[in-house]
Please model this.
Amino acid sequence: MLTVNKKFTIVRLLCAFAIAIALSVAVIFAVSEEPVTAIYNLFLGPLQSKRHFFEVFASSVPLIFTGLALGLVFKSGNFSMIADACLYTGACLYTGAVVTAALAIKTSLPFAVHPIVIMIAAAAVGGLIGSIPALLKVYFHTNELVTSL
Model:
């Protein structure tokens, strides 16, 4: 049986979805020359083919992992903008990509092991760059918001 707190959480979540959908539809009607087609493509476009579905899924993976990372950071009681910076500006992303691309080209490992090693290296490089604001806070008592921006 659902408690009052869980019912409120579900209602709050449904209200957030309803508001987001209403705002999206309002913006589409405000800017689109064919709003019905645009709304149809927004909601049913990903379901028209496997290719469209997996394109949406592939585009959402970085957002999902960024949300998980920020949830972990906020749950620990800290505040950091490094995940947003890595996603939107690409400082960590590009550095990690360059290092792992070079590693992928220069190493010759067995077929099954190579992608795993490269992904672990990408995570290590991203984690190393992402830990810079935390290290500055611990050793020099700097503000992590300023250093992560």
Q: What stands out?
A: The mean pLDDT is 83. The chain has eight helices and no strands.
